[in-house]
């Protein structure tokens, strides 16, 4: 509508009748949830509109709706339909709010007084003006002022700007008087999801069975019954905005007993979209889980890792500690050949293994970032109990300046690896070597993992030990 026409229509808009719509009118609901506390809601309802101007109270929207993103479309008769104004009424009806709205207004105070004969009581009514509600109630009666209500307070009506539920009030024009399907779409906070993965290691630790779950949390202040649910995996850019108020607390975890069909996955722009194959209900203040994926017999590789520090190579340190922990890592390929090959949303992967009695025991967890198809997934599960390392510097000398280099250092190291397990293990030793470096002696071959990283792989016999030695010259 053009500005001049809108100004002319304002009086009629203000006087237009208000029509309410609730979840009872809902015909379709779709919710798309993003990783970072953001969701897109599409709520379709059937509403009977009058011809001309009307005010539509679209009730039971999210309490964390971003009103500036709201868009109302008429799916039945889009011609001669337009929206001229939107107001989000988030001042919800409570006894305290109702009292605050009546500051300066008259109310009725009703108190009960026992009859003189001890049987029953009589009600007395007095009119009073609400003076203030700050840290208590101040009421002015005809002959006195009281700082607390001597009875129950009766209000003549509920103010128009107080709502029982979060409501978007829309001033609109309809070209026809009949039932019409209206779709309200908006962005909201308070809805989030994350991926949670559960992996069960095989007895020989050569494969794992993987299950993926989507954990959904609804703290938006609204329910979403029988919604078509879609999830977007990826880091969507969002403009800076003021933090939204959070409503409610998380409810109990609703875990499915058995895994339903996996979610359908497809590419969307530079992200990935997952669609649940059935409608689901997101209740207010609820956390629930739905199945994302499952795979069995995924080949894995187990790695024991010891890492050095850059400062080892710039001075004389001698013994570098009695015992150095050895990290335990498990990795697998997200490939079809490994019985996976699907984009994995970021989340936490928890790993279990059955004990000798067949009971599943937790053995570690790690974060998984968004992982495309054909990429590597590597998890740190903890520190080894039976595999350890002891490191010492066996020689050091400063060689002074050499050509363009300001400092040249030569160091020799000995790393003793111990294995108390009943089977041999292979330990990776990752050394971060600074500057321009050269290995001039080594007991085991190395690979150059990166410009400043040398990697040794050392096999340690069962209930035995092995020693890695090397000498390196670094130039800074």
Any overview of this molecule?
This protein is mainly β and 476 residues long. It has two helices and 32 strands. Among the domains are: 95-154, no CATH class; 301-334 and 375-475, Sandwich (Immunoglobulin-like), CATH 2.60.40. The chain is elongated, with a radius of gyration of 34 Å. The model is unreliable at 1-10 and 243-260 (pLDDT under 50).
Instruction: Report strand %.
Output: over 45%
Taking the alpha carbons of the first and last residues, their distance comes to 71 Å
What is the radius of gyration computed over CA atoms, rounded to a whole number of angstroms? 34 Å
CATH architecture of the domain at 301-334 and 375-475: Sandwich
Q: CATH top level of the domain at 301-334 and 375-475?
A: Mainly Beta
Assembly category: single chain
Uncertain regions spanning at least 5 consecutive residues: 1-10, 243-260
Strand order of the largest sheet: 29-32-27-26-23-22-28-31-30
Main sheet specs: 9 strands, mixed
Principal-axes shape call = elongated
Count, helices: 2
Q: What structural category arises from helix and sheet content?
A: mainly beta
Overall pLDDT score: 88
Work out the number of β strands.
32
What is CATH's topology name of the domain at 301-334 and 375-475?
A: Immunoglobulin-like
Helix content: under 10%
In short:
The protein contains two helices and 32 strands. The protein has 476 residues and is mostly beta strands.
């Amino acid at each position: 509508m053009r500005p001049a026409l809108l100004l002319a229509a304002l009086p009629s808009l203000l006087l237009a009748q208000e029509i309410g719509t609730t979840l009872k009118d809902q015909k379709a609901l779709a919710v798309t949830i993003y990783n970072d506390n953001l969701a897109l809601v599409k709520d379709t309802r059937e509403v009977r509109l009058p011809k001309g101007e009307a005010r539509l109270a679209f009730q039971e929207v999210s309490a964390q709706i971003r009103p500036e993103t709201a868009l109302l479309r008429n799916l039945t008769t889009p011609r001669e339909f337009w929206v001229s104004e939107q107001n989000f009424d988030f001042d919800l009806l409570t006894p305290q709010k109702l009292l605050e709205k009546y500051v300066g207004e008259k109310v009725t105070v009703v108190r009960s007084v026992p009859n003189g004969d001890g049987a029953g009581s009589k009600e007395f009514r007095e009119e009073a003006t609400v003076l203030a509600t700050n840290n208590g109630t101040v009421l002015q009666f005809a002959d006195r002022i009281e700082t607390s209500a001597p009875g129950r307070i009766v209000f003549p009506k509920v103010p128009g700007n107080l709502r029982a539920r979060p409501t978007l009030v829309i001033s609109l024009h309809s070209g026809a008087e009949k039932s019409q399907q209206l779709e309200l779409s908006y962005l909201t906070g308070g809805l989030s999801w994350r991926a949670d993965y559960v992996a069960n290691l095989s007895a020989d630790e050569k494969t794992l069975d993987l299950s993926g779950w989507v954990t959904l949390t609804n703290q938006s202040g609204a329910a979403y019954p029988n919604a078509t649910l879609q999830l977007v995996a990826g880091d969507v850019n969002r403009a800076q905005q003021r933090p939204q108020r959070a409503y409610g607390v998380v409810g109990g975890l609703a875990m499915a007993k058995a895994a339903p069909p996996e979610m359908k996955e497809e590419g969307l722009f530079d992200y990935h979209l997952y669609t649940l194959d059935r409608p689901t209900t997101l209740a207010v203040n609820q956390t629930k889980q739905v199945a994302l994926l499952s795979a069995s017999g995924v080949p894995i590789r187990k790695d024991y890792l010891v890492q050095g520090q850059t400062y080892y190579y710039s001075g004389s340190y001698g013994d570098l500690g009695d015992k150095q922990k050895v990290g335990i890592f498990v990795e697998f390929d997200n490939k079809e050949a490994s019985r996976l090959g699907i984009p994995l949303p970021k989340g936490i992967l928890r790993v279990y293994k059955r004990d000798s009695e067949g009971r599943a025991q937790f053995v570690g967890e790690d974060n998984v970032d968004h992982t495309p198809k054909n990429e590597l997934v590597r998890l740190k599960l903890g520190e080894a109990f039976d595999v350890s390392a002891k490191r010492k510097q066996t020689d050091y000398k400063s060689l002074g300046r050499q050509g363009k280099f300001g400092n040249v250092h030569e160091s020799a190291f000995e790393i003793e690896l111990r294995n108390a397990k009943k089977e041999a293990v292979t330990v990776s030793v990752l050394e971060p070597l600074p500057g321009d470096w050269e290995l001039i002696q080594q007991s085991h071959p190395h690979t150059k993992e990166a410009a400043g990283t040398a990697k040794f792989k050392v096999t340690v016999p069962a209930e035995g030990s092995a020693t890695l030695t090397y000498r390196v010259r670094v130039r800074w």
